[in-house]
Protein: Isoprenyl transferase
Organism: Myxococcus xanthus
Amino acid sequence: MERPSVISTLEQAVKARPMPRHVGIIMDGNGRWAESRGLPRLEGHREATSSVREVTRTARRLGIQALTLYAFSSQNWARPAEEVAGLMDLLREYLERERSEILDNGIRLNAIGDVDRLPRYVRDPLDRLRADSAHNTGMVLSLALSYGGREEILHAARRLAEAVERGELAAGRLEESDFEQFLWTQGLPPLDLMVRTSGELRVSNFLLWQMAYAEMCFTDALWPDFRTDEFLRCVSQYQQRERRFGLTSAQVQREDAPQQAKA
Ligand code: IPE
Ligand code: IPE
Ligand code: MG
């Protein structure tokens, strides 16, 4: 009989415990992965798509409801034009190549960010896949494209102000939920776990509002090296944390703790 591998043992252990509902990943380190091999940076971005496929499959297998991948930031537009163009080409290839994988696995593809800034040849396959997967209920895979957390908050604030001007909402009675309905992540579960690869200890404008009570997993692995086992380690770390949401440990452990504290 085949011995279970270390990875599948870890996966079984992870599966037996409560899963984060929404995981966000800052997929960083593609350039360094390539440069350390004497390759052009774009080769790192190309290899990154294999990690995207593998982590998406694993998240789906684990039953995670929502996975949000930071693929291109608002600030990344300022990179050399050649790198931006290469990234856009890879994005289009990804959307075409992964189409059947996404549809066959019941995944709903979503995009967050200022997607109107993307070139047509990316927006078209993106819109098509979003529409064709709209009724899937397995997992929401959100690609953060031309995304910035501050940009998202500003965009939401503008739309909220417009709703107030139209008299639909009263400024003095606004609740967090009123604000959240204007965020690009509207309808997604709260962010439970944020992962960043490549050893950088910063959030680089990712999901700033949503991150308020997310658990963090920072790993030195460069994104092209980040595969199932690394992902499972992050989920496992998350499962070992006590999420207190401002309460004491004793409160959280009490049966009557408020719902949010036990979320
Ligand atoms: C992350 O990898 C991908 C994007 C930001 C598009 P990087 O390209 O930032 O890789 P490093 O950080 O330079 O190694
Ligand atoms: C964050 O990585 C953006 C993405 C992963 C898409 P960056 O490489 O752009 O972040 P900084 O510049 O190191 O903060
Ligand atoms: Mg980087």
